[in-house]
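Why does residue order matter? Because the sequence determines the fold. Keep that principle in mind as you read this record.
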Amino acid sequence: MNGIFRFLPMLALVALTFSACQKENLMDEPSDVPQDVIDQLSQMGFNPEGIVKIDRGYLIERDIIITEAFLQQEKRPVRVPGMEQYHTDNLVSTNGSRNITMYIKTSGFRSFSQFYVDALDEAISRYNAENLKVSFTRVTNESSADISVTKLNFLQSLIGVLGSAGFPDASGNPYNEILLNGTLENSFSVEGMATVIAHEMGHCIGLRHTDYFDRSISCGGSASDEGASDIGANHIPGTPTGATAAAGSYMLACTDGSDRPFNQDDQTALDYLY
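Structure:
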């Protein structure tokens, strides 16, 4: 779940034999990314390692999408978080209550199997069980969806990216797309896949990684700070001042593929924001 939002696996996919920490090395060299973009992202506070050009813009920190439009926005002061759960400056506007509709393609080219539909429904039910000011509903018409779930391209799936998403816009709308690895049906349970989807939904409504300050907590390997950025990294009151893999937050940067329902701190964060 590398959030930016990308959700990296710590277990090997069926067709692969490397671990998540090895997978990170496969994306260390930027691919077709102009140097001025790399410099700009670095100045904005993002970790420049592993930037990849994608259709929507750039994929950074393994699961966070930065669009060209975002790069053209006026710069804001960088905020450096400590070791806690945190959120972006932009959140979803609710006006007391807001239902966010979600669509997943189930037929035709690049469609998802029932496994993914069941996982999305489970992720939606986890949020709705919290009785927040935001709720989610799956719809069958893409034109009426606030968030569309679509497939990652095959190359990104092969190198171990589980999913990616962006953050809410300045108008208070959730990010409008979640990209998912479509090759996980035989290696993840429905509940494990629901955790991946819930993680990306968390990014769409403004949540950042619980272990932002040190990805090695969930991803292994050497300590790695994702870098502060001008999208905001604001402490959520009531959440702990440290992160552990054992606590099992669904917003940890990486997953071992297991089921991670919202823990108490996740619930505190969601309740505070929404």
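The chain has eight helices and twelve strands.
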